[in-house]
Design a protein that fits this description.
98 residues, 2 helices, elongated
């Protein structure tokens, strides 16, 4: 039983890691696109550059941070619900088959 739980935990960690990478990539693209449409300038990717205004760098960091965190929360919670539902179905099928 402990071995099965350990395998499930490892599976969840792998799924969570992949979702985290995909989410980060997607949010970065979406926020960058939205920033460009809203401001008319490319997103400041090098916040340490003195060519980027301090206010713009801070604003972009805030927007990116909030967008990233909210999206990761939503994706992680949705994935966890789906994973738990899948495990419940799998356990029910195992109980039926013996």
């Amino acid at each position: 039983m402990a071995d099965t739980t350990e395998k499930q935990d490892m599976a969840w960690k792998a799924i969570g890691g992949l979702l985290g990478l995909a989410t980060a990539w997607g949010v970065r693209k979406i926020v960058g696109f939205a920033w460009e449409k809203a401001t008319g300038r490319k997103a400041p990717v090098d916040n340490e550059s003195l060519e980027v205004d301090l206010g713009e760098a801070i604003g972009y960091a805030v927007v990116m941070g909030v967008g990233m965190q909210v999206t990761q929360i939503v994706v992680a919670r949705t994935a966890r619900k789906r994973y738990d539902a899948w495990r419940a179905v799998k356990a029910a099928a195992k109980d039926v088959t013996g």
